[in-house]
Protein backbone atom coordinates (compact mmCIF):
# COMPACT_ATOMS: atom_id res chain seq x y z
CA UNK A 1 0.00 0.00 0.00
CA UNK A 2 1.43 3.33 -1.11
CA UNK A 3 1.65 6.17 1.41
CA UNK A 4 0.37 9.59 0.47
CA UNK A 5 2.98 11.86 -0.95
CA UNK A 6 4.25 14.46 1.47
CA UNK A 7 3.10 18.04 0.68
CA UNK A 8 4.25 21.39 1.89
CA UNK A 9 1.86 24.22 2.71
CA UNK A 10 1.86 27.63 4.24
CA UNK A 11 -0.96 28.53 6.62
CA UNK A 12 -2.06 31.36 8.89
CA UNK A 13 -4.17 29.27 11.21
CA UNK A 14 -2.36 30.42 14.30
CA UNK A 15 -3.05 34.05 13.44
CA UNK A 16 -6.70 33.32 12.85
CA UNK A 17 -6.94 31.58 16.18
CA UNK A 18 -5.45 34.56 17.91
CA UNK A 19 -7.93 36.90 16.23
CA UNK A 20 -10.86 34.71 17.24
CA UNK A 21 -9.73 34.65 20.84
CA UNK A 22 -9.39 38.45 20.93
CA UNK A 23 -12.40 40.45 22.24
CA UNK A 24 -14.94 41.28 19.52
CA UNK A 25 -15.46 44.94 18.55
CA UNK A 26 -18.83 46.56 19.26
CA UNK A 27 -21.46 45.92 16.57
CA UNK A 28 -22.02 48.52 13.86
CA UNK A 29 -24.97 50.86 14.37
CA UNK A 30 -27.04 52.21 11.47
CA UNK A 31 -28.86 55.41 12.50
CA UNK A 32 -31.35 55.04 9.61
CA UNK A 33 -32.65 51.69 10.88
CA UNK A 34 -33.16 52.76 14.45
CA UNK A 35 -30.29 51.00 16.13
CA UNK A 36 -28.88 54.21 17.52
CA UNK A 37 -28.37 54.07 21.23
CA UNK A 38 -28.86 57.18 23.30
CA UNK A 39 -25.83 58.37 25.15
CA UNK A 40 -26.09 58.15 28.92
CA UNK A 41 -26.96 61.44 30.53
CA UNK A 42 -24.15 62.99 32.42
CA UNK A 43 -25.01 64.63 35.74
CA UNK A 44 -25.00 68.40 35.39
CA UNK A 45 -23.58 70.37 38.24
CA UNK A 46 -26.24 72.59 39.72
CA UNK A 47 -25.33 76.18 40.34
CA UNK A 48 -25.82 77.41 43.90
CA UNK A 49 -29.02 79.42 44.26
CA UNK A 50 -28.61 83.12 44.85
CA UNK A 51 -29.51 84.28 48.36
CA UNK A 52 -33.02 85.70 48.64
CA UNK A 53 -33.16 89.43 48.85
CA UNK A 54 -35.18 90.98 51.65
CA UNK A 55 -38.59 92.29 50.56
CA UNK A 56 -38.42 96.03 50.89
CA UNK A 57 -41.68 97.90 50.54
CA UNK A 58 -41.15 100.93 48.32
CA UNK A 59 -44.21 102.72 49.64
CA UNK A 60 -42.97 102.39 53.19
CA UNK A 61 -39.63 103.97 52.30
CA UNK A 62 -41.21 106.90 50.42
CA UNK A 63 -42.18 109.88 52.50
CA UNK A 64 -45.87 110.87 52.28
CA UNK A 65 -46.66 114.16 50.48
CA UNK A 66 -47.45 117.16 52.67
CA UNK A 67 -51.14 118.05 53.14
CA UNK A 68 -52.56 121.00 51.13
CA UNK A 69 -52.67 124.34 52.93
CA UNK A 70 -56.07 125.34 54.39
CA UNK A 71 -58.10 128.05 52.56
CA UNK A 72 -57.80 131.58 53.87
CA UNK A 73 -61.56 132.26 54.00
CA UNK A 74 -64.94 130.77 53.14
CA UNK A 75 -65.13 132.72 49.86
CA UNK A 76 -61.81 131.23 48.76
CA UNK A 77 -63.09 127.76 49.65
CA UNK A 78 -66.23 128.37 47.61
CA UNK A 79 -64.22 129.54 44.59
CA UNK A 80 -61.94 126.50 44.78
CA UNK A 81 -64.91 124.13 44.20
CA UNK A 82 -65.80 123.29 40.56
CA UNK A 83 -68.85 125.11 39.10
CA UNK A 84 -72.16 123.18 39.07
CA UNK A 85 -73.39 121.81 35.71
CA UNK A 86 -75.89 124.02 33.80
CA UNK A 87 -79.55 123.00 33.92
CA UNK A 88 -80.84 120.95 30.97
CA UNK A 89 -82.88 123.00 28.51
CA UNK A 90 -86.07 122.03 26.71
CA UNK A 91 -84.17 121.58 23.41
CA UNK A 92 -82.04 118.85 24.96
CA UNK A 93 -85.09 116.98 26.18
CA UNK A 94 -86.77 117.20 22.78
CA UNK A 95 -83.62 116.04 20.99
CA UNK A 96 -83.27 113.04 23.29
CA UNK A 97 -86.96 112.19 22.92
CA UNK A 98 -86.83 112.21 19.06
CA UNK A 99 -83.53 110.59 18.14
CA UNK A 100 -82.64 109.52 14.60
CA UNK A 101 -83.61 105.85 14.54
CA UNK A 102 -83.64 104.99 10.81
CA UNK A 103 -80.84 102.48 11.26
CA UNK A 104 -82.09 100.96 14.49
CA UNK A 105 -83.73 97.54 14.23
CA UNK A 106 -86.02 98.16 17.16
CA UNK A 107 -88.38 100.43 15.20
CA UNK A 108 -90.37 98.48 12.52
CA UNK A 109 -90.19 100.20 9.12
CA UNK A 110 -91.63 98.80 5.88
CA UNK A 111 -91.50 100.50 2.47
CA UNK A 112 -93.99 98.98 0.03
CA UNK A 113 -92.69 100.10 -3.36
CA UNK A 114 -95.12 97.89 -5.26
CA UNK A 115 -98.09 99.40 -3.46
CA UNK A 116 -96.92 102.93 -4.22
CA UNK A 117 -96.47 102.17 -7.93
CA UNK A 118 -99.82 100.38 -8.21
CA UNK A 119 -101.63 103.24 -6.49
CA UNK A 120 -100.05 105.77 -8.84
CA UNK A 121 -100.88 103.62 -11.87
CA UNK A 122 -104.50 103.20 -10.76
CA UNK A 123 -104.79 106.95 -10.19
CA UNK A 124 -103.45 107.58 -13.69
CA UNK A 125 -105.89 105.05 -15.17
CA UNK A 126 -108.83 106.70 -13.41
CA UNK A 127 -107.73 110.11 -14.69
CA UNK A 128 -107.50 108.87 -18.29
CA UNK A 129 -110.74 106.81 -18.02
CA UNK A 130 -109.92 104.36 -20.81
CA UNK A 131 -111.47 100.91 -20.53
CA UNK A 132 -109.87 99.43 -23.66
CA UNK A 133 -106.22 98.44 -22.96
CA UNK A 134 -105.34 98.75 -26.66
CA UNK A 135 -106.21 102.44 -26.66
CA UNK A 136 -103.98 103.21 -23.69
CA UNK A 137 -100.54 104.70 -24.33
CA UNK A 138 -97.90 101.99 -24.81
CA UNK A 139 -95.27 102.33 -22.12
CA UNK A 140 -92.18 100.39 -23.26
CA UNK A 141 -90.85 99.57 -19.80
CA UNK A 142 -90.23 95.83 -20.30
CA UNK A 143 -88.66 93.65 -22.98
CA UNK A 144 -90.85 92.16 -25.71
CA UNK A 145 -91.34 88.56 -24.58
CA UNK A 146 -93.62 87.45 -27.42
CA UNK A 147 -94.80 88.13 -30.96
CA UNK A 148 -98.33 89.44 -31.24
CA UNK A 149 -100.31 90.54 -34.28
CA UNK A 150 -103.38 92.68 -33.52
CA UNK A 151 -106.45 92.28 -35.71
CA UNK A 152 -107.72 95.78 -36.48
CA UNK A 153 -108.47 97.84 -39.53
CA UNK A 154 -107.30 101.20 -38.20
CA UNK A 155 -103.64 102.16 -37.98
CA UNK A 156 -102.08 99.27 -39.98
CA UNK A 157 -98.50 98.49 -39.07
CA UNK A 158 -95.94 95.73 -38.58
CA UNK A 159 -97.91 94.36 -35.59
CA UNK A 160 -101.47 94.61 -36.95
CA UNK A 161 -103.54 93.06 -39.73
CA UNK A 162 -107.11 93.70 -40.97
CA UNK A 163 -108.32 90.04 -40.84
CA UNK A 164 -107.57 86.90 -38.87
CA UNK A 165 -106.23 85.06 -41.94
CA UNK A 166 -103.79 87.82 -42.80
CA UNK A 167 -102.77 88.09 -39.12
CA UNK A 168 -101.90 84.36 -39.02
CA UNK A 169 -99.95 84.63 -42.28
CA UNK A 170 -98.04 87.64 -40.96
CA UNK A 171 -97.31 85.81 -37.71
CA UNK A 172 -95.94 82.81 -39.64
CA UNK A 173 -93.66 85.04 -41.71
CA UNK A 174 -92.47 86.80 -38.53
CA UNK A 175 -91.66 83.48 -36.82
CA UNK A 176 -89.78 82.25 -39.89
CA UNK A 177 -87.77 85.43 -40.39
CA UNK A 178 -86.69 85.58 -36.75
CA UNK A 179 -85.78 81.85 -36.61
CA UNK A 180 -87.93 81.19 -33.55
CA UNK A 181 -87.82 77.42 -34.04
CA UNK A 182 -84.02 77.28 -34.19
CA UNK A 183 -83.70 79.53 -31.14
CA UNK A 184 -86.15 77.37 -29.20
CA UNK A 185 -84.19 74.22 -30.02
CA UNK A 186 -80.80 75.80 -29.20
CA UNK A 187 -82.09 76.98 -25.83
CA UNK A 188 -83.34 73.50 -24.91
CA UNK A 189 -80.10 71.60 -25.54
CA UNK A 190 -76.44 72.34 -24.97
CA UNK A 191 -74.23 72.83 -28.03
CA UNK A 192 -70.51 72.34 -27.69
CA UNK A 193 -68.06 74.78 -29.27
CA UNK A 194 -67.08 72.58 -32.21
CA UNK A 195 -70.66 72.01 -33.36
CA UNK A 196 -71.48 75.68 -32.86
CA UNK A 197 -68.54 76.71 -35.05
CA UNK A 198 -69.63 74.32 -37.81
CA UNK A 199 -73.25 75.46 -37.61
CA UNK A 200 -72.34 79.13 -37.88
CA UNK A 201 -70.04 78.43 -40.84
CA UNK A 202 -72.84 76.50 -42.57
CA UNK A 203 -75.33 79.31 -41.93
CA UNK A 204 -72.94 81.89 -43.37
CA UNK A 205 -72.32 79.79 -46.46
CA UNK A 206 -76.04 79.19 -47.01
CA UNK A 207 -76.85 82.89 -46.65
CA UNK A 208 -74.09 83.85 -49.13
CA UNK A 209 -75.25 81.20 -51.58
CA UNK A 210 -78.85 82.38 -51.34
CA UNK A 211 -77.91 86.02 -51.97
CA UNK A 212 -75.69 85.09 -54.92
CA UNK A 213 -78.27 82.73 -56.41
CA UNK A 214 -81.02 85.36 -56.19
CA UNK A 215 -78.75 87.94 -57.83
CA UNK A 216 -77.83 85.53 -60.66
CA UNK A 217 -81.48 84.59 -61.20
CA UNK A 218 -82.51 88.25 -61.37
CA UNK A 219 -79.74 88.99 -63.89
CA UNK A 220 -80.63 86.01 -66.09
CA UNK A 221 -84.33 86.86 -65.96
CA UNK A 222 -83.60 90.43 -67.04
CA UNK A 223 -81.45 89.21 -69.94
CA UNK A 224 -84.23 86.87 -71.06
CA UNK A 225 -86.61 89.81 -71.07
CA UNK A 226 -84.21 91.74 -73.28
CA UNK A 227 -84.11 88.88 -75.80
CA UNK A 228 -80.78 87.27 -75.11
> Which range does the strand content fall in?
under 5%
Biggest sheet layout: 2 strands, parallel
What structural class do you assign from the helix and strand content? mainly alpha
Shape: flat
Q: Total number of β-strand segments? A: 2
Radius of gyration over all CA atoms, rounded: 56 Å
User: Kindly state the mean pLDDT as a whole number?
Assistant: 74
Report the helical percentage: 40-55%
User: Could you list the spans in which at least 5 consecutive residues all have pLDDT below 50?
Assistant: none
Enumerate how many helices there are, as a single number. 8
SSE string: HHHHHEEHHH
Query: How widely separated are the two ends?
Result: 141 Å
**What strand order characterises the main sheet?**
1-2
InterPro entries: Mitoribosomal_bS21 (IPR052837), Ribosomal_bS21 (IPR001911)
Biased composition (Low complexity): 89-102
GO molecular function, one term: structural constituent of ribosome
Keywords: Ribonucleoprotein, Ribosomal protein
Amino acid sequence: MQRPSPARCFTTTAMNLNERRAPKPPPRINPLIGGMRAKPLEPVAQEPAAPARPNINVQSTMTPPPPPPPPKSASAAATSLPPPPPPSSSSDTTSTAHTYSATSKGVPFQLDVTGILSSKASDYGRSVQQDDPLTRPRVRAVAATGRTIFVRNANPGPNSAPTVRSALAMLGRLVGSQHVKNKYYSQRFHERKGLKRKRLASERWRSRFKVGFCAAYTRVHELRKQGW
